[in-house]
Design brief:
Blueprint (H helix, E strand, L loop, with lengths): L4 H20 L2 E4 L5 E5 L4 E5 L2 H11 L3 E5 L14 H9 L2 E4 L9 H9 L4 E3 L27 H18 L4 H27 L7 E6 L3 H7 L2 E6 L9 H14 L3 E5 L5 H12 L5 E6 L14 H15 L13
Parallel strand pairs: 3-4, 3-5, 5-6, 7-8, 9-10
Antiparallel strand pairs: 1-2
Bound molecules: zinc ion.
The site of zinc ion has 6 residues, from loops.
Length: 332
Amino acid sequence: MLQSPAFRSSMLLVVVAACGIALTGCSETPNKDGQASGSTRSTPYTVVTTVGMVTDIVERVAGERAEVSGIIGTGVDPHLYKPTRNDIAQLQAADVVFYCGLLLEGKMTDALIKLGRSGKPIYAVTERIDPKYLLSPEGDEGHHDPHVWMDVTAWIQAVRVVAEALGEYDPPHAEEYRVNADNYSAELESLDAYVKGVIASIPGEHRVLVTAHDAFNYFGRAYGLRVVGIQGLSTESEAGLEDINRLVGLLVETGLPAVFVETSVADRNVKALIEGAAARGATVKIGGSLFSDAMGASGTYEGTYIGMLDHNATTIARALGGKAPERGFRDK
Ligand SMILES: [Zn+2]
């Protein structure tokens, strides 16, 4: 199920209406000099998010001003995630909600629409990304691939979206959110340069990324890899025997040394591929486990967006014959 343009614009209207209601609810509060400082929010206010990549942006941009909690944790597939009663209660109690959008959280759509209708400020971080950054799958133009975080430059747009949204919710601190967003974006720009460098070190004939599902198209576009997902854009679609045989042929022809599993997707298709290649005399390894739609455990380096991309780029470069520093981008 993909969302129609009409559906998207109606969601946007809901979001705009919700913001209007939220802003009229602001109250005048004196600052420490006893003067009215314009509308301000009691801090910390609560923000509820869906996937870790979105949580990470909000934590960096909101800083101490918000308590941020994410619903979809490490190793959990957002395409298939159904919100629990507890999640719904958490979403309803939040002051602001952010999600990825482009139907990544497919099974949460109804809950998110209902929430928007209730007048709560709710934002898809991909909603205001310049469409020139968005990919549409072949034969399905008009619908966008949701895995935007895989292109660091495109994801910087989402950082700006969060800063603008928090500035709308809490206008007196809009400048602070903008500064936080700029600082985080600068870190992401050096991450982008690191990923470009290590992927470029992979020999040309091995610049092919075979993974469990189609989450890496943005990564391939940004960093110069041909990308092949065994399952489609959503893990809801199943790979057939024919797909597997076609990919075995590709592995045998290219002599690709490694394919990759993903932390949030079952590895049976990747294993079938390796066995198929072995039956035709090709040795293909599992090059590592990539963070596609979920980050690592919270509190670890891989549990941050930068750590996630560093891990992926460093793992891919090494397994496909490129060079990457011993301890990756941040020496971690
Ligand atoms: Zn995905």
